[in-house]
Amino acid sequence: MPSSKPAAQTQRKIQSRRILAQTVRHLKRQGRRVAFTNGCFDLLHVGHITLLEQAKRLGDVLIVALNSDRSVRALKGAGRPVVPQDDRARVIAALANVDYVTVFDEPTPYRLISLLKPDVLVKGTDWRTKGVVGSELVKHRGGRVVLVPLVQDRSTTRLLERLESLARNSR
After folding, report:
1. Is the dihedral of CA 75, 22, 36, 131 positive or negative?
2. Is 44 helix (H, G, I), strand (E, B) or coil?
3. 89 lies in a domain?
4. Does a structural domain hold residue 92?
5. 54 in a domain, yes or no?
6. Alpha-carbon separation of residue 88 from 31, 103, 135, 137 (angstroms)
7. Number of domains, the chain
8. Dihedral over Cα of 117, 156, 92, 102: its sign
9. Residue 51 to residue 120: CA distance in whole angstroms
10. For labelling alongside 84, which of 43, 65, 91, 147 has CA 20 to 30 A away?
């Protein structure tokens, strides 16, 4: 019977912000470039995968910060997230391009970015008009902010709309 415990390698990738801050300091002393991205990553899709692949190419190490369940509900409304934060963290940590995962409870990752001091902050181009949270922190330290093109018509919202439509049509 298979174990329900995450594989040790995947579990090691999921770190508290305190431990992750220590890990990042160690990596930077080794001269490693740290890339950072964040999001809800609810119902993982090809748009997410594309963002993570591109983000990994921009650094030696990729950190993904996940919005907590409470944070997702505040941003997206009741009924979200579809997938609980521990499951989302495990799925993201299982991806080869992702080196570390942490969960944040605040509405934005500003405090986490301030703590971790990534060299590269990566978001989708949809954030161009919204403003990338933490961009001034990263730029002030000599880092860069990179906006990755979105994969057209791929989003969690679009997936949920499609599922709702399929459910209505099957009744």
Report:
1. positive
2. coil
3. yes
4. yes
5. yes
6. 30, 10, 25, 27
7. 1
8. positive
9. 13
10. 147
Q: Which of helix, strand or coil describes residue 164?
A: helix
* 130 burial type by CB count under 10 A (0-12 exposed, 13-18 middle, 19+ buried): exposed
Question: Nearest 5°: CA angle at 55, between 156 and 58?
Answer: 170
Range of the domain at 29: 8-169
For residue range 65-89, list pLDDT tens digits in order. 999 999 999 988 888 899 999 999 9
pTM of this prediction? 0.86
Is the C-alpha dihedral spanning 102, 108, 114, 118 positive or negative? positive
Angle at 85 between CA 32 and CA 78, to 5 degrees: 135
Report pLDDT digits (tens) over 99-154: 999 999 999 999 999 999 999 999 987 766 678 999 999 999 999 999 998 767 76
Task: Give domain status of residue 82, yes or no.
Answer: yes
CB under 8 A, 24+ apart: contacts of 53-58: 53/97, 54/122, 54/146, 54/148, 55/97, 55/120, 55/122, 55/146, 55/148, 56/97, 56/98, 58/33, 58/120, 58/122, 58/146
Per residue in 84-111, is it b (16+ CB within 10 Å) or e — as a string? ebeebbbbbbebebbbbbbbbeeeebee
